[in-house]
Design brief:
This protein is of the alpha+beta class. The chain has one domain. Helices cover about 65% and strands about 15% of the residues. The protein has four helices and five strands, in the order αβββββααα. A hairpin with a 4-residue loop joins strand 1 and strand 2.
């Protein structure tokens, strides 16, 4: 082993230790998804499901940052701490889906020249979009802790 590869291996080991000391298990790619300790993040369409030893723990996670945090909490056997983060992610998802439905309704009302209806839908859309942005920030903030 050359000096350079030995030095590189030392850096990798030291970096992994720093992550573990901070409570973060580094993910590794598998055939089914991404493994984080005993937890696994598996794709489910646009969502991600979190498994622990083949048992579905958190279905339909929307945000990547939240999925990684949840997988780490499950891997460290701290799933009870994950409930608030998971709920924040689900709140964001609900508002996000509602914004897409409202935008579609707005465009249909505009095309059919129902301008009053379009204005009402647009007002609702802007409110829901703001709530979606707030929910996303909250979920990502909780996932950062």
């Amino acid at each position: 082993m050359s000096h350079l590869s030995k030095r590189f291996e030392q850096i990798v080991v030291r970096t992994q230790k720093k992550f573990l000391d901070k409570g973060t298990i580094l993910p590794e790619k598998t055939d089914k998804g991404i493994r984080v300790g005993i937890a696994e993040i598996r794709p489910n369409g646009v969502y991600k499901d979190i498994y622990r030893n083949e048992d579905l723990v958190f279905p339909g996670v929307c945000l990547n940052k939240v999925a990684i945090k949840l997988a780490n909490l499950v891997a460290w056997n701290q799933g009870h701490r994950a409930i608030e983060i998971y709920q924040a992610d689900q709140d964001y998802n609900k508002f996000y889906v509602e914004t897409t439905v409202l935008m579609s309704s707005y465009n249909m009302a505009k095309e059919s020249k129902k301008f009053f209806k379009a204005d009402v839908i647009w007002a609702r859309y802007t409110q829901v979009k703001q709530r979606a942005n707030q929910a996303k920030k909250k979920a990502e903030r909780l996932a950062s802790l």
